[in-house]
Request: fold
Amino acid sequence: MEWNRKPVFGVGINDIPEYTKGTKVYLVWKSMLARCYSPYTRRTNPAYEGCSVCEEWLTLSIFRKWFEENYREGCQLDKDILVPGNKEYSPSTCCFVPQEINKLFKGHSRKSGITTGVRKQNRKYIAQFREDGITHKASFDSLSEAEDFYRSHKRNRLIDIAERYFKAEKLSEKTYKAIKNYAVCL
Reply:
């Protein structure tokens, strides 16, 4: 009996009949394809505009092999920690990271051009961040002071979290080093 399915988001080939909705590898693969090829996802998440998946990962069985070698429970697929600014999902550019780390890789607000975590309020600049469920705020006269304060906090927090997850074996050494390099450049 011939097995045939419609391509996922017009490009993805599920060549493993038993891998359908519900398996972790299928859900991660389909979500990655959606970020790149779903008109709805690209419209609602403009950060994914121009993103793509490498040719080999369009086939589920090939993606599954990489997934099984690299997946860490509770982590998310990321395409631009190893290669900052990267727009392609591929074996050499992707890694798995905890959501707590992934959230710290936000840069600038698209609307204001101001660093995420800093906002203008009246004639002051407010740097704000959450840590362990507590919101911390500091007020500054200049944008550069507020951004420096925020980046310094973010740098220290990112290094602390990366070290904790690396020791708990939730990060590969390659990913850990990339995160530390990113933090140093903040």
User: Anything to note?
Assistant: The CA atoms of residues 53 and 165 lie 27 Å apart. The chain has two domains: 1-71, 76-186. The longest helix spans residues 143-167. The beta strands are 52-53, 75-78, 88-89, 95-98, 118-121, 124-131, 134-140.
